[in-house]
Design brief:
- It is globular and about 75 Å long.
- Helix 2 runs parallel beside helix 4 and helix 3 packs across helix 4.
- The chain folds into 3 domains: 60 residues; 199 residues, Purple Acid Phosphatase, chain A, domain 2 (4-Layer Sandwich), CATH 3.60.21.60; 81 residues, OB fold (Dihydrolipoamide Acetyltransferase, E2P), CATH 2.40.50.140.
- The strands form 4 sheets. Strands 3-13-14-15-17-16 form a 6-stranded mixed beta sheet, with no helix packed on it.
- Helix 7 links the parallel strand 10 and strand 11.
- The chain has 380 residues and is of the alpha/beta class.
Length: 380
Protein backbone atom coordinates (compact mmCIF):
# COMPACT_ATOMS: atom_id res chain seq x y z
CA UNK A 1 0.00 0.00 0.00
CA UNK A 2 1.26 3.49 -0.84
CA UNK A 3 2.31 5.76 2.02
CA UNK A 4 -0.25 8.42 1.10
CA UNK A 5 -3.01 5.79 1.30
CA UNK A 6 -1.78 4.69 4.74
CA UNK A 7 -1.81 8.31 5.96
CA UNK A 8 -5.36 8.75 4.63
CA UNK A 9 -6.51 5.56 6.42
CA UNK A 10 -5.34 6.95 9.77
CA UNK A 11 -6.56 10.49 9.14
CA UNK A 12 -10.04 9.13 8.48
CA UNK A 13 -9.83 7.35 11.86
CA UNK A 14 -8.59 10.52 13.65
CA UNK A 15 -4.89 9.62 13.96
CA UNK A 16 -1.57 10.96 12.70
CA UNK A 17 1.28 8.55 12.06
CA UNK A 18 5.03 9.07 12.66
CA UNK A 19 7.60 8.62 9.83
CA UNK A 20 9.00 5.50 11.55
CA UNK A 21 5.57 3.89 11.83
CA UNK A 22 4.76 4.88 8.24
CA UNK A 23 7.92 3.21 6.88
CA UNK A 24 7.21 0.08 8.97
CA UNK A 25 3.67 -0.27 7.60
CA UNK A 26 4.65 0.48 4.00
CA UNK A 27 6.87 -2.64 3.97
CA UNK A 28 4.17 -5.05 5.16
CA UNK A 29 2.13 -7.32 2.85
CA UNK A 30 -0.87 -7.40 5.22
CA UNK A 31 -0.84 -3.68 5.97
CA UNK A 32 -4.63 -3.27 5.67
CA UNK A 33 -5.21 -5.99 8.28
CA UNK A 34 -2.68 -4.36 10.63
CA UNK A 35 -4.22 -0.92 10.14
CA UNK A 36 -7.75 -2.17 10.89
CA UNK A 37 -6.48 -3.88 14.05
CA UNK A 38 -4.69 -0.71 15.19
CA UNK A 39 -7.73 1.49 14.49
CA UNK A 40 -9.95 -0.87 16.47
CA UNK A 41 -7.74 -1.27 19.54
CA UNK A 42 -5.83 2.05 19.87
CA UNK A 43 -7.10 4.52 22.47
CA UNK A 44 -9.06 7.40 20.91
CA UNK A 45 -7.23 10.08 22.97
CA UNK A 46 -3.92 9.15 21.33
CA UNK A 47 -3.18 11.58 18.46
CA UNK A 48 0.13 10.46 16.92
CA UNK A 49 0.92 6.78 16.43
CA UNK A 50 4.60 5.91 16.72
CA UNK A 51 6.58 2.84 15.72
CA UNK A 52 5.97 1.21 19.10
CA UNK A 53 2.20 1.50 18.60
CA UNK A 54 2.12 -0.27 15.23
CA UNK A 55 4.63 -2.94 16.28
CA UNK A 56 2.29 -4.15 19.03
CA UNK A 57 0.06 -5.92 16.54
CA UNK A 58 3.02 -7.50 14.74
CA UNK A 59 4.37 -8.93 18.00
CA UNK A 60 0.91 -10.18 18.94
CA UNK A 61 0.68 -11.97 15.58
CA UNK A 62 4.02 -13.73 16.15
CA UNK A 63 2.85 -15.00 19.54
CA UNK A 64 -0.41 -16.50 18.24
CA UNK A 65 -0.65 -20.23 18.67
CA UNK A 66 -1.78 -22.35 15.76
CA UNK A 67 -5.45 -23.14 15.80
CA UNK A 68 -6.34 -26.44 14.12
CA UNK A 69 -9.95 -27.64 13.99
CA UNK A 70 -10.83 -30.92 12.27
CA UNK A 71 -14.24 -30.26 10.67
CA UNK A 72 -14.66 -33.43 8.60
CA UNK A 73 -12.79 -36.71 9.17
CA UNK A 74 -14.27 -40.19 8.79
CA UNK A 75 -12.67 -42.41 11.45
CA UNK A 76 -14.64 -45.66 11.13
CA UNK A 77 -17.23 -47.57 9.10
CA UNK A 78 -20.00 -49.94 10.28
CA UNK A 79 -19.07 -53.61 10.55
CA UNK A 80 -22.47 -54.73 9.28
CA UNK A 81 -25.38 -53.13 7.43
CA UNK A 82 -29.06 -53.71 8.17
CA UNK A 83 -31.94 -53.08 5.79
CA UNK A 84 -33.09 -50.01 7.70
CA UNK A 85 -29.58 -48.54 7.43
CA UNK A 86 -30.03 -48.08 3.66
CA UNK A 87 -33.22 -46.06 4.17
CA UNK A 88 -31.68 -43.95 6.93
CA UNK A 89 -28.58 -43.22 4.80
CA UNK A 90 -30.57 -41.87 1.85
CA UNK A 91 -33.00 -39.97 4.06
CA UNK A 92 -30.05 -38.36 5.83
CA UNK A 93 -28.67 -37.15 2.49
CA UNK A 94 -32.04 -35.71 1.46
CA UNK A 95 -32.58 -33.89 4.76
CA UNK A 96 -29.09 -32.36 4.77
CA UNK A 97 -29.35 -31.26 1.14
CA UNK A 98 -32.88 -29.95 1.69
CA UNK A 99 -31.60 -27.75 4.51
CA UNK A 100 -28.77 -26.36 2.35
CA UNK A 101 -31.12 -25.62 -0.56
CA UNK A 102 -33.72 -23.94 1.65
CA UNK A 103 -31.01 -21.72 3.11
CA UNK A 104 -29.54 -20.89 -0.30
CA UNK A 105 -32.61 -20.47 -2.53
CA UNK A 106 -35.47 -18.09 -1.79
CA UNK A 107 -38.56 -20.04 -2.84
CA UNK A 108 -41.76 -21.40 -1.35
CA UNK A 109 -40.97 -25.11 -1.67
CA UNK A 110 -43.75 -27.69 -1.53
CA UNK A 111 -43.56 -31.44 -1.01
CA UNK A 112 -44.65 -33.75 -3.84
CA UNK A 113 -47.74 -35.00 -2.01
CA UNK A 114 -49.02 -31.38 -1.74
CA UNK A 115 -48.87 -30.58 -5.46
CA UNK A 116 -52.63 -31.01 -5.98
CA UNK A 117 -54.59 -30.71 -9.22
CA UNK A 118 -54.57 -26.92 -9.67
CA UNK A 119 -52.33 -25.70 -12.50
CA UNK A 120 -49.85 -23.27 -10.95
CA UNK A 121 -46.14 -22.48 -10.65
CA UNK A 122 -44.37 -24.50 -7.95
CA UNK A 123 -40.87 -25.13 -6.57
CA UNK A 124 -39.81 -28.42 -5.03
CA UNK A 125 -36.73 -30.29 -3.84
CA UNK A 126 -36.08 -33.87 -4.90
CA UNK A 127 -33.60 -36.66 -5.57
CA UNK A 128 -33.17 -37.63 -9.22
CA UNK A 129 -34.24 -41.28 -9.41
CA UNK A 130 -34.34 -41.50 -13.23
CA UNK A 131 -33.53 -39.37 -16.27
CA UNK A 132 -34.24 -39.91 -19.97
CA UNK A 133 -34.78 -38.21 -23.32
CA UNK A 134 -38.07 -38.58 -25.19
CA UNK A 135 -39.26 -36.67 -28.26
CA UNK A 136 -36.89 -33.71 -27.77
CA UNK A 137 -37.84 -33.59 -24.10
CA UNK A 138 -35.87 -34.44 -20.97
CA UNK A 139 -37.80 -36.22 -18.24
CA UNK A 140 -36.52 -36.32 -14.66
CA UNK A 141 -38.21 -38.50 -12.08
CA UNK A 142 -37.90 -36.65 -8.77
CA UNK A 143 -38.48 -38.19 -5.36
CA UNK A 144 -38.80 -36.62 -1.92
CA UNK A 145 -39.88 -38.03 1.46
CA UNK A 146 -43.54 -38.02 0.34
CA UNK A 147 -43.61 -39.37 -3.22
CA UNK A 148 -42.35 -39.14 -6.80
CA UNK A 149 -43.24 -36.98 -9.79
CA UNK A 150 -42.02 -36.69 -13.41
CA UNK A 151 -40.64 -33.28 -14.41
CA UNK A 152 -40.63 -32.61 -18.17
CA UNK A 153 -38.18 -30.06 -19.62
CA UNK A 154 -37.58 -28.78 -23.12
CA UNK A 155 -34.10 -30.10 -23.95
CA UNK A 156 -32.51 -26.64 -24.11
CA UNK A 157 -33.39 -25.85 -20.49
CA UNK A 158 -31.21 -28.46 -18.76
CA UNK A 159 -27.89 -30.21 -19.29
CA UNK A 160 -28.78 -33.89 -18.93
CA UNK A 161 -25.10 -34.88 -18.93
CA UNK A 162 -24.44 -32.72 -15.86
CA UNK A 163 -27.36 -34.23 -13.94
CA UNK A 164 -26.66 -37.57 -12.25
CA UNK A 165 -28.85 -40.12 -10.55
CA UNK A 166 -29.18 -39.43 -6.79
CA UNK A 167 -28.39 -35.71 -7.22
CA UNK A 168 -30.53 -33.57 -4.93
CA UNK A 169 -31.77 -30.51 -6.82
CA UNK A 170 -34.50 -27.89 -6.73
CA UNK A 171 -36.80 -27.35 -9.71
CA UNK A 172 -39.25 -24.63 -10.67
CA UNK A 173 -42.11 -25.40 -13.02
CA UNK A 174 -45.82 -25.58 -13.70
CA UNK A 175 -47.73 -28.24 -11.78
CA UNK A 176 -50.34 -30.09 -13.83
CA UNK A 177 -51.92 -32.85 -11.73
CA UNK A 178 -49.46 -35.76 -11.94
CA UNK A 179 -46.67 -34.04 -13.85
CA UNK A 180 -44.59 -30.87 -13.69
CA UNK A 181 -43.51 -28.92 -16.76
CA UNK A 182 -40.09 -27.74 -15.72
CA UNK A 183 -38.78 -24.21 -16.24
CA UNK A 184 -35.52 -24.28 -14.26
CA UNK A 185 -33.14 -26.60 -12.41
CA UNK A 186 -31.55 -24.97 -9.35
CA UNK A 187 -28.44 -26.32 -7.66
CA UNK A 188 -27.61 -25.68 -3.99
CA UNK A 189 -24.21 -24.20 -5.02
CA UNK A 190 -21.99 -22.10 -2.77
CA UNK A 191 -22.64 -18.41 -2.00
CA UNK A 192 -20.83 -15.41 -3.45
CA UNK A 193 -18.63 -13.93 -0.72
CA UNK A 194 -15.33 -12.19 -0.03
CA UNK A 195 -12.22 -14.34 0.26
CA UNK A 196 -11.53 -15.31 3.88
CA UNK A 197 -8.10 -14.33 5.26
CA UNK A 198 -6.13 -16.21 7.89
CA UNK A 199 -2.60 -16.49 9.28
CA UNK A 200 0.48 -18.34 8.01
CA UNK A 201 1.33 -20.21 4.81
CA UNK A 202 0.68 -23.70 3.50
CA UNK A 203 2.30 -25.83 0.82
CA UNK A 204 0.08 -28.19 -1.17
CA UNK A 205 1.26 -31.32 -3.01
CA UNK A 206 -0.28 -34.60 -4.18
CA UNK A 207 0.30 -37.82 -6.13
CA UNK A 208 3.84 -38.39 -4.86
CA UNK A 209 3.86 -42.08 -5.88
CA UNK A 210 6.85 -42.63 -3.64
CA UNK A 211 7.19 -46.23 -4.80
CA UNK A 212 7.99 -45.18 -8.37
CA UNK A 213 8.77 -41.44 -8.63
CA UNK A 214 12.48 -40.42 -8.93
CA UNK A 215 13.90 -40.24 -5.40
CA UNK A 216 16.19 -37.35 -6.33
CA UNK A 217 13.24 -35.15 -7.34
CA UNK A 218 11.37 -35.90 -4.12
CA UNK A 219 14.47 -35.23 -2.01
CA UNK A 220 14.89 -31.89 -3.77
CA UNK A 221 11.34 -30.92 -2.81
CA UNK A 222 11.61 -32.02 0.83
CA UNK A 223 14.99 -30.26 1.19
CA UNK A 224 13.43 -27.07 -0.19
CA UNK A 225 10.38 -27.34 2.07
CA UNK A 226 12.52 -28.06 5.15
CA UNK A 227 14.48 -24.83 4.58
CA UNK A 228 11.41 -22.71 3.78
CA UNK A 229 9.46 -20.57 6.27
CA UNK A 230 6.30 -22.56 5.50
CA UNK A 231 5.07 -24.58 8.48
CA UNK A 232 2.19 -26.55 6.98
CA UNK A 233 2.30 -29.22 4.28
CA UNK A 234 -0.86 -30.75 2.77
CA UNK A 235 -0.70 -33.99 0.75
CA UNK A 236 -3.82 -34.96 -1.26
CA UNK A 237 -3.29 -38.69 -1.67
CA UNK A 238 -1.46 -41.31 -3.75
CA UNK A 239 1.48 -41.42 -1.38
CA UNK A 240 1.95 -45.20 -1.93
CA UNK A 241 4.82 -45.61 0.57
CA UNK A 242 4.11 -44.24 4.06
CA UNK A 243 7.41 -45.47 5.45
CA UNK A 244 9.38 -43.46 2.89
CA UNK A 245 7.26 -40.39 3.60
CA UNK A 246 7.90 -40.77 7.33
CA UNK A 247 11.63 -40.91 6.61
CA UNK A 248 11.44 -37.68 4.61
CA UNK A 249 9.52 -35.78 7.29
CA UNK A 250 11.81 -37.02 10.09
CA UNK A 251 14.23 -34.32 8.94
CA UNK A 252 11.72 -31.63 9.93
CA UNK A 253 12.39 -32.32 13.65
CA UNK A 254 8.85 -31.31 14.62
CA UNK A 255 9.14 -27.86 12.99
CA UNK A 256 6.48 -28.64 10.38
CA UNK A 257 2.94 -30.05 10.48
CA UNK A 258 1.83 -32.42 7.73
CA UNK A 259 -1.81 -33.08 6.82
CA UNK A 260 -2.45 -36.00 4.49
CA UNK A 261 -5.23 -38.09 3.02
CA UNK A 262 -5.18 -41.36 1.04
CA UNK A 263 -5.71 -41.49 -2.71
CA UNK A 264 -7.07 -44.34 -4.79
CA UNK A 265 -3.57 -45.87 -4.97
CA UNK A 266 -3.47 -45.96 -1.15
CA UNK A 267 -7.06 -47.13 -0.60
CA UNK A 268 -9.56 -47.92 -3.36
CA UNK A 269 -12.57 -47.32 -1.06
CA UNK A 270 -14.43 -44.01 -1.11
CA UNK A 271 -14.73 -42.41 1.28
CA UNK A 272 -11.45 -43.84 2.61
CA UNK A 273 -10.30 -43.99 6.22
CA UNK A 274 -7.07 -42.27 7.36
CA UNK A 275 -3.74 -43.95 6.69
CA UNK A 276 -1.91 -45.27 9.75
CA UNK A 277 1.13 -43.43 11.06
CA UNK A 278 2.83 -43.02 14.43
CA UNK A 279 4.51 -39.72 13.59
CA UNK A 280 3.24 -36.96 15.86
CA UNK A 281 3.75 -34.22 13.30
CA UNK A 282 1.60 -36.04 10.70
CA UNK A 283 -2.17 -35.47 10.94
CA UNK A 284 -3.66 -38.33 8.94
CA UNK A 285 -7.20 -37.68 7.71
CA UNK A 286 -9.82 -39.46 5.61
CA UNK A 287 -10.47 -38.90 1.92
CA UNK A 288 -12.28 -36.50 1.80
CA UNK A 289 -11.76 -34.39 4.92
CA UNK A 290 -11.82 -30.76 5.99
CA UNK A 291 -9.61 -28.88 8.42
CA UNK A 292 -9.79 -25.29 9.63
CA UNK A 293 -6.30 -23.88 10.06
CA UNK A 294 -5.89 -20.41 11.57
CA UNK A 295 -9.24 -19.27 10.18
CA UNK A 296 -8.99 -20.93 6.73
CA UNK A 297 -11.17 -23.95 5.89
CA UNK A 298 -9.35 -26.44 3.66
CA UNK A 299 -11.09 -29.33 1.90
CA UNK A 300 -8.74 -32.21 1.08
CA UNK A 301 -10.09 -34.56 -1.56
CA UNK A 302 -8.11 -36.76 -3.92
CA UNK A 303 -10.39 -36.79 -6.99
CA UNK A 304 -12.32 -33.54 -7.36
CA UNK A 305 -14.72 -31.99 -9.85
CA UNK A 306 -15.95 -28.41 -9.65
CA UNK A 307 -19.53 -29.67 -9.88
CA UNK A 308 -19.02 -30.94 -6.33
CA UNK A 309 -19.15 -27.32 -5.16
CA UNK A 310 -22.12 -26.55 -7.39
CA UNK A 311 -24.03 -29.63 -6.18
CA UNK A 312 -22.66 -29.42 -2.60
CA UNK A 313 -21.89 -33.13 -2.75
CA UNK A 314 -18.52 -34.90 -2.88
CA UNK A 315 -19.19 -37.84 -5.18
CA UNK A 316 -20.74 -41.26 -4.69
CA UNK A 317 -20.13 -43.28 -1.55
CA UNK A 318 -19.23 -46.95 -1.90
CA UNK A 319 -20.39 -47.52 1.68
CA UNK A 320 -23.64 -47.21 3.57
CA UNK A 321 -22.66 -45.20 6.64
CA UNK A 322 -24.46 -44.01 9.77
CA UNK A 323 -24.96 -40.68 7.96
CA UNK A 324 -24.12 -39.36 4.51
CA UNK A 325 -20.58 -38.14 5.01
CA UNK A 326 -20.22 -36.65 1.52
CA UNK A 327 -22.72 -33.79 1.84
CA UNK A 328 -20.71 -30.54 1.68
CA UNK A 329 -22.52 -28.72 4.47
CA UNK A 330 -19.52 -26.46 5.25
CA UNK A 331 -18.17 -24.22 2.45
CA UNK A 332 -14.36 -24.43 2.13
CA UNK A 333 -11.99 -21.56 1.41
CA UNK A 334 -9.45 -23.82 -0.31
CA UNK A 335 -9.93 -27.12 -2.14
CA UNK A 336 -6.78 -29.23 -2.38
CA UNK A 337 -6.99 -32.14 -4.82
CA UNK A 338 -4.91 -34.47 -6.97
CA UNK A 339 -5.48 -37.59 -9.09
CA UNK A 340 -5.17 -35.98 -12.53
CA UNK A 341 -1.39 -35.33 -12.26
CA UNK A 342 -2.06 -31.93 -13.89
CA UNK A 343 -1.06 -28.71 -12.03
CA UNK A 344 -4.11 -26.47 -11.56
CA UNK A 345 -4.80 -23.18 -9.80
CA UNK A 346 -8.26 -21.68 -10.26
CA UNK A 347 -11.01 -19.95 -8.33
CA UNK A 348 -14.73 -20.51 -7.99
CA UNK A 349 -16.69 -17.93 -6.00
CA UNK A 350 -13.69 -17.08 -3.74
CA UNK A 351 -12.80 -20.75 -3.26
CA UNK A 352 -9.20 -21.41 -4.32
CA UNK A 353 -8.81 -24.80 -6.04
CA UNK A 354 -5.27 -26.21 -6.33
CA UNK A 355 -3.61 -29.33 -7.70
CA UNK A 356 0.19 -29.62 -7.69
CA UNK A 357 0.42 -32.26 -10.40
CA UNK A 358 2.79 -35.14 -9.73
CA UNK A 359 6.53 -35.97 -9.81
CA UNK A 360 5.53 -38.61 -12.37
CA UNK A 361 4.48 -35.90 -14.84
CA UNK A 362 4.59 -32.18 -14.10
CA UNK A 363 5.17 -31.19 -10.47
CA UNK A 364 4.43 -27.65 -9.26
CA UNK A 365 4.00 -27.47 -5.48
CA UNK A 366 1.51 -24.75 -4.57
CA UNK A 367 2.14 -22.21 -1.80
CA UNK A 368 -0.76 -20.16 -0.42
CA UNK A 369 -0.31 -17.20 1.91
CA UNK A 370 -3.38 -17.41 4.13
CA UNK A 371 -3.18 -13.73 5.12
CA UNK A 372 -3.44 -12.46 1.54
CA UNK A 373 -4.73 -15.59 -0.28
CA UNK A 374 -1.90 -15.09 -2.80
CA UNK A 375 -1.05 -18.31 -4.68
CA UNK A 376 2.36 -19.33 -6.04
CA UNK A 377 3.26 -22.38 -8.11
CA UNK A 378 6.81 -23.35 -7.19
CA UNK A 379 9.21 -24.59 -9.86
CA UNK A 380 12.02 -26.54 -8.23
Amino acid sequence: MKKEDIIKYFLDAGFLVSPGALNFLANKDDVETIINKIKKETRSEKVVLGLEDVRVYEEEKKERKENIIIIKNLRSKPDEIKTEDFLHFYQDKYKKMQKIIQERINANFVSINKLGGVRKEVSLIGIIKDKKRKDEKIILELEDMTGTVPVIFNSGLVNIEELELDDVIAVRGISATKVIYGKEVMYPDIPLRSATRGVGKGCFISDLHLDEAPTSDLKRFFDWFSQSDIKYLFIAGDITDMKMLENFVDDFNGRKTIFLIPGNMDDKEYPALPLKTEKKNIISLSNPSMVELNGIKILLIHDFDINMLKKRYLGKSRDILEEDYLVLDVVPDIVHCGHTHEPIVKNYKSVTIVNSGSPLSEFKPVVIDFSTRAVEQVKL
